[in-house]
Design goal:
alpha/beta, about 230 residues, Carbamate kinase, two-stranded antiparallel sheet
Length: about 230
Amino acid sequence: MGKEKTPIILSLGGSLIVPDGGIDTKFLREFNQFIRKNVALGRHFFIVAGGGKTARHYRDAGVIVVGKITRDDLDWLGIHASRMNAHLLRTIFKDIAHPKIIDHYDEKYPGLKKPVVVASGWKPGWSTDYDAVLTAKLYGALTVINLSNVEMVYTKDPRKFADARPIKKISWVDFRKLVGDHWSPGMNVPWDPVAARLGQKLGLKVIILDGRDLENLGNCLKGKDFVGTTIS
């Protein structure tokens, strides 16, 4: 990945790769075409894969069998689920992707010359959102785009509260009031609180949008109006 290129960091929610009904090949086919189209325009991507329902299924199974699982073991199940998803993405982008999955974030990987780099979870206590922030720090990106199955951040959970309002722009201070300060495996928040703390410290911009709407993502990349939430 050339020094002159500022990479686009995509935190790809595992819920898009593996929703309840199994691996979403329709989405992956469209995502494949989208990334290749943008690579042809000269864009470079880091894609950090989440664990999705695969992680939740393994966590649930462990709890059902054993009754109680340590926090670290819950995290490791999620990390390995994210690695499986990352390997699927690397296989899809094999001809344009770095041949190795990035799975640690304490230093830069050497020899990143391909336009796509796929990354996965690293170690317990950190979500793939946090890994995406570390990727931005290491490789000089100022923005992280979080692709999930929700189109925006809301003041409350819109599935539970009819008066929940969408938020187009929000400061890190106010966003962190919404999500708190602590991470737990499998928690359902629009962005990991620990990643939010580091994102604020680094002065990053994080954009949260529905990754299934690739036209909307394209508008975001072009600097056009898009549906989503910007945290800065």
